[in-house]
C-alpha cells in the first residue's frame, strides 16, 4: 500500500477506530471498511478471510522451523496431537 505520506501512527489509529467500533457493535462491517483495513495492512481483501493456517511471517531460521512444525501438526489426527503434547510436556518438564 502506498501510504502517500500517511504516518504509521495515523494508520494504527484508523484501524483501531474501525475495528474498535465493529467490536463494540457501533459499526457494521462493510466491504468498504474491510477494504480500508486490508489496504492499511497492505494485504489483499481476500487475506482477511483466510483462517486455514497459522503462519509466522519472519524469515529467520527459527520462523522457518516454526512454520515447518506447524505444517506437520496441521496434518495430524487429534489423537496424535495429544501424544505430541504429552511428549513436549515430558521433554520440557512443563
**Tally of distinct domains:** 2
Q: Could you say which overall geometry the principal axes of the C-alpha atoms support? A: elongated
Report the structural category.
Answer: mainly alpha
Compute the number of strand runs: 0
Q: What's the multimeric state?
A: single chain
Number of helices in the DSSP assignment: 4
Radius of gyration: 19 Å
Q: Secondary-structure element sequence? A: HHHH
Please give the alpha-carbon distance between the first and last residues: 43 Å
> Share of helix among residues?
55-70%
The fraction of residues in strands falls at under 5%
Mean pLDDT: 81
Sheet with the most strands, sense and barrel status: none
Low-confidence stretches: none
InterPro entries: Cro/C1-type_HTH, Lambda_DNA-bd_dom_sf
Domain HTH cro/C1-type: 19-48
Protein name: Helix-turn-helix domain-containing protein
Describe the structure.
- The radius of gyration is 19 Å and the shape is elongated.
- It folds into two domains: 8-49, no CATH class; 61-92.
- α1 packs antiparallel against α2.
- The model has no long low-confidence stretch (mean pLDDT 81).
- It has 94 residues and is an all-alpha fold.
- The N and C termini lie far apart (43 Å).
- The protein contains four helices and no strands.
- Residues 19-48 form the HTH cro/C1-type domain.
- This is Helix-turn-helix domain-containing protein.
